[in-house]
Specification:
mainly beta; S-adenosyl-L-methionine-dependent methyltransferases; 8-stranded antiparallel sheet; 6-stranded antiparallel sheet; 38 strands; 41% strand; flat
């Protein structure tokens, strides 16, 4: 029989062996204050160090040495990722830092302590992120060599990661990060080259979940979280687009004598039927276009053309025009205010600009240099041709190059836009060069109308989803969001937005609070609301009615009970409004939200 002192000692040892948890940096448990691609990045190599202040651990009750056995990196809030990105030959090192977290050296070696230890070397595979706040931990490393750290000594903790490109390089997204070193007690030194000797200091340190044995931390974080799911009705947009992370991923390229075509057939004043086909380029018959500079020259780098007049009126979902402005960088402005002479065309594709500026045709927005290849092809340039029938025009980017490729003939791309008097449009692609990793964007944007930008349809794989309809008039779906998290003992707020005011203002709506989730949602077409779905079962809870008084949004406050028995409890919420013109049922529904009660 064990004597009491020995039994007590074994019991204490067993307690210390239980894994404890702690999130760094400080104040990042429930949501991250920043997002970054400078740590774990699928499409680039990285070396980065995170340094965490020792007080982060002592403030969490770590009164002596702890043994860190596992590190988990969190995806940025609300990012959805399928997982499956694989990094090979990843190296992770840990040590007591030689420098203070607030003032790290930019030389990586100068931050490593004498007890530097390689704690992991091998392959890392990302896990899925569900898009919650806080989000999923998607990089999960069980350390092959656990690291002993004593925060009581007042020396900060350093974690260093080296990784190359992942495979696949896409569908990963940003990682959660801190943003203010004085508040979050952490900093980062990072470089965009694996094995680099020096980097740049930043306040955006990784949000890390530490698993350790020893005193302090907590055995259960009980994190309050919210996660949207499903979609409201109705999301209507005339625009569509696909963003490509680099030129080599552009999958609509044709061949030197055969094109891949995107056809846009009008389906009324607010939409297109988009399909994929094949064809050929109509050879230019005109001279290369001149820029709109004060002293015009052939279009080269970042130029706009002089105004080009169509032989007909082009009707499109953003309005109508008889004049277009052609950009060297692979897009066409439909009407609108003419660019000031000499104004550069935008060479950095972004969805935000695409949707918020003048309506544009965007066959391939990139950082092109249209005269780069004239030494190897004197005809290289941009052309505007009117068909002899006056019923069609052709805009051709012929044998153009990329700005980033200085050598003539190395990167060669040819594509064309056909505009017909009927309003139908074709994008035609021959060979597309792939010399650089510049972002490319392809699609059509309705543009800004009366101060309202085009609705964002989301990035789509055009070649995989065609044929598809891009239909307006533009409108965003009824949307439910959570302004706060369901922390025990607090009051959280749900906001219903995009409540319609046309053709008549909505007067009545409600938010369902239920213990019964419906996911995937139940299609309400059977009761007269096609395209709307039930995500929270009203019979499993209660409904809070609100009056909108013609407003486009409404808030609902929910007191969260205090007490350990409520921790981990999940509520499922969804809003609805009554709008007689929406559908035969006269009902619009929002997305759903899962809200999990937590203490942190």
């Amino acid at each position: 029989m064990l004597k009491l002192p020995v039994a007590l000692a074994l019991a204490l040892t067993a307690n210390l062996a239980v894994a404890q948890l702690l999130v760094g940096g400080a104040n990042q448990v429930g949501s991250s204050s920043a997002a970054t691609t400078a740590t774990w990045a699928a499409n680039g190599s990285r070396r980065f160090q995170n340094i965490y202040d020792s007080s982060l651990f002592t403030n969490a009750g770590c009164t002596g040495p702890i043994t860190i056995t596992r590190l988990r990196w969190r995806q940025a809030d609300n990012v959805v990722s399928p997982g499956g990105n694989v990094w090979t030959n990843v190296t992770v090192q840990m040590s007591s830092a030689l420098t203070n977290f607030a003032a790290p050296a930019t030389t990586f070696a100068a931050n490593r302590g004498a007890n530097n230890l390689i704690v992991f070397n091998g392959t890392v595979t990302s896990l899925p992120a569900i898009g919650a706040t806080p989000n999923s931990y998607v990089i999960d490393l069980q350390l092959t060599s656990p690291f002993v750290y004593n925060p009581v000594l007042g020396v900060d903790l350093l974690i260093e990661v080296d990784h190359a490109f992942a495979s696949p390089t896409v569908s990963f997204g940003s990682m959660a990060a801190s943003s203010l070193s004085s508040l979050h007690l952490a900093r980062r030194v990072g470089a965009t080259s694996q094995g680099s000797g020096t980097g740049t200091a930043s306040d955006q340190a990784s949000v890390l979940l530490f698993d350790f044995t020893g005193p302090g931390g907590t055995g259960n974080l009980s994190i309050a979280s919210t996660q949207p799911y499903g979609d409201g009705c109705y999301r209507l947009t005339s625009s569509f687009y696909e963003s490509f992370a680099n030129s080599s991923l552009f999958d609509l390229r044709g061949a030197p004598t055969t094109t891949t075509n995107i056809s846009m057939l009008p389906t009324g004043p607010y939409g297109y039927l988009v399909s994929i086909g094949n064809g050929s380029i109509t050879p230019p018959a005109s001279a290369p276009l001149l820029s709109n500079a004060v002293t015009p020259v052939n279009i080269g780098d970042d130029d706009f053309s002089q105004p080009q007049t169509l032989p007909f009126t082009l009707n499109h979902p953003g309005g109508s025009c008889t004049t277009i402005h052609i950009a060297a960088n692979g897009f066409i402005q439909l009407g609108g205010t003419p660019p000031t002479p000499g104004t550069a065309s935008d060479f950095t594709p972004s969805v935000g600009e695409f949707l918020s500026q003048t309506a544009r045709l965007c066959p391939l927005w990139n950082d092109w240099h249209c005269s780069r290849n004239v030494n190897t092809n004197p005809a290289a340039g941009v052309y505007f041709d009117i068909d002899p029938s006056n019923t069609r025009v052709y805009i051709t980017w012929l044998a153009i190059g990329e700005f980033a490729q200085a050598t003539s003939g190395v990167s060669v791309s040819t594509f064309q836009v056909m505009i017909d008097v009927s309003g139908s449009i074709e994008y035609r692609y021959e060979s597309i060069g792939a010399a650089t990793a510049a972002v490319n964007l392809c699609g059509f944007a309705r543009g800004i109308i009366n101060g309202a930008q085009a609705s964002d349809p989301g990035n789509r794989d055009i070649s995989a989803t065609a044929p598809f309809a891009a239909s307006g008039p533009d409108g965003n779906p009824l949307t439910l969001s959570a302004a706060t998290r369901p922390l025990s003992g607090t009051t959280m707020t749900f906001t219903t937005s995009n409540i319609p005011t046309l053709p008549t203002p909505v007067a009545l709506g409600g938010t369902i609070l239920s213990f019964l989730q419906v996911n995937p949602g139940f299609d309400l077409a059977i009761v007269g609301a096609p395209g709307c779905r039930e995500y929270a079962n009203a019979s499993g809870g209660t409904t809070v009615i609100f009056l909108t008084n013609g407003a486009t949004s409404a808030n609902m406050s929910l007191p969260i009970p205090n007490g350990s028995s409520y921790l981990g409890l999940r509520l499922f919420t969804q809003s609805f409004v009554l709008q007689s013109s929406a559908n035969p049922l006269g009902l619009l529904t929002s997305n759903g939200i899962t809200a999990q009660i937590g203490a942190f």
